[in-house]
Amino acid sequence: MSAATEAKPKVVLAYSGGLDTSVIIPWLKENYDYDVIACCANVGQGGGETEGLEEKAKKSGASKLYLLDLQEEYVTDFIFPTLKAGATYEGKYLLGTSHARPVIAKHLVEVAHKEGAVAICHGATGKGNDQVRFELTVMALDPSLKCVAPWREWNIKSREDAIDYAEAHGVPVPCTKSDLYSRDRNLWHISHEGMDLEDPANEPMYAKLLKLCNTVEKAPDQAEYVTVQFEKSIPVAVNGTKLPPVQLVEELNVLGGKHAIGIEDIVEDRLVGMKSRGVYETPAGTILYKALDTLESLCLDRDTQAFKRQSAVRFAELVYDGKWFTPLRESMSAMFDQMAESVTGEVKLKLYKGNLVPAGAKSPFSLYNENIASFGDSHELYNHHDAEGFIRLFGLPLRVRAMMLSENGMSNKV
Question: Which proteins does it associate with, and in what oligomeric form (predicted)?
Answer without folding.
Answer: Homotetramer.
